[in-house]
Amino acid sequence: MKRALSLLGLVLLAAWVPGAVIAADKIVLGTDWRAEAEHGGYYQALATGLYAKAGLDVTIRQGGPQVNHSQLLAAGKLDFAVAPNSFIPLNFVAENVPVVAVAAIFQKDPAVLIAHPAQGNDSLAALKGKKIMISPDTRIGFWRFLKSKYAYTDDQIAPYTFNLAPFLANTKSIQQGYITSEPFQIERTGIKPVVMLLADSGYASYASLIMAPRARLEKQPELVRRFVDASVQGWLDYLTADPAAANALIKRDNPDMTDELLAYGRAQLKAHGIIQSGDADGSGVGVMTAERWKAFFDVMAADGLYPKDLMYQRAYVTDFVAKGASR
């Protein structure tokens, strides 16, 4: 009994003694693809100790073509997950799954369409009626925006297998991609492609959304806040400070990644205002607004993707963001 009381005393002492070591909260974050510059801020927060300073012991699990971290998050196998677009949280609402977006790191979705130069395929409007290589996921993603705004039709769709060979072999070809990746790979072959960023033509999807189970928001709001704040600071550091520590971890997780591609990806994130633009300029990295969610939902509901009476507001919460541009 005396030993038990002594141990209890030590625990209570550790709770108030300055400098006492307290176990960090273990967190598993699932990303939306294999490690790359688009995940740089999360890796920066891990590599430079920002998560640890926030009392978080974070493990990053990279995604990939055969990994669905959104499903793993919904099943309780992850604590947070990165979603690639605004469709994911809306789909959760439609399926009555209690998972929500708590921050939108990317104010602009980095999705692009890519064409060869000097072929007359230099605007999204000019691509109407032409074959475009897209993936099955894209068909129920930004393709809906293109159909709505530019009257694209499904018979334009050609299969995309994440292989550049078909594009390089045919000067008339057009394909999907990301501003941070495929243009770099194409340029290395000697072709200067036409690159059309959908976000600059009205595509309002957020990207790199931090997703969390609603139960965690209700039971552990301070933990969510610590994770979001550390992630935001990680992104600010990745963009403005030395990214070497983050890049080393990215290359560890994804050996196919190169220094050149990482530098290119980071430069594109900055040059196109993927993270710091629009509402983020005044309200800080990660901000989401009710107005923008409504605008995105209205377009997709009008296209028939979601019921018009869907409670889309349940897809997100803004309690953890919009603390100012200096965050």
Secondary structure elements and pairings:
Elements: H1 2-16, E1 25-30, H2 40-47, H3 50-53, E2 56-61, H4 69-74, E3 80-83, H5 87-94, E4 99-106, E5 111-115, E6 132-134, H6 136-139, H7 142-150, E7 157-159, H8 165-169, E8 174-178, H9 182-187, E9 194-197, E10 207-213, H10 214-219, H11 221-240, H12 244-253, H13 259-271, H14 279-283, H15 290-302
Parallel strand pairs: 1-2, 1-3, 6-7
Antiparallel strand pairs: 3-10, 4-10, 5-8, 5-9
Describe the structure.
The structure is a single chain. The chain is of the alpha/beta class. The protein has two domains: 198 residues, 3-Layer(aba) Sandwich (D-Maltodextrin-Binding Protein, domain 2), CATH 3.40.190.10; 91 residues, D-Maltodextrin-Binding Protein, domain 2 (3-Layer(aba) Sandwich), CATH 3.40.190.120. The protein is built from 15 helices and ten strands. The N and C termini lie far apart (50 Å). The N terminus is likely disordered.
Distance between the termini: 50 Å
* Share of helix, binned: 40-55%
The outline comes out as globular
Radius of gyration: 21 Å
Q: Write down the domain tally.
A: 2
Strand order of the largest sheet: 2-1-3-10-4
User: What is the correct CATH architecture of the largest domain?
Assistant: 3-Layer(aba) Sandwich
Strand content range: 15-25%
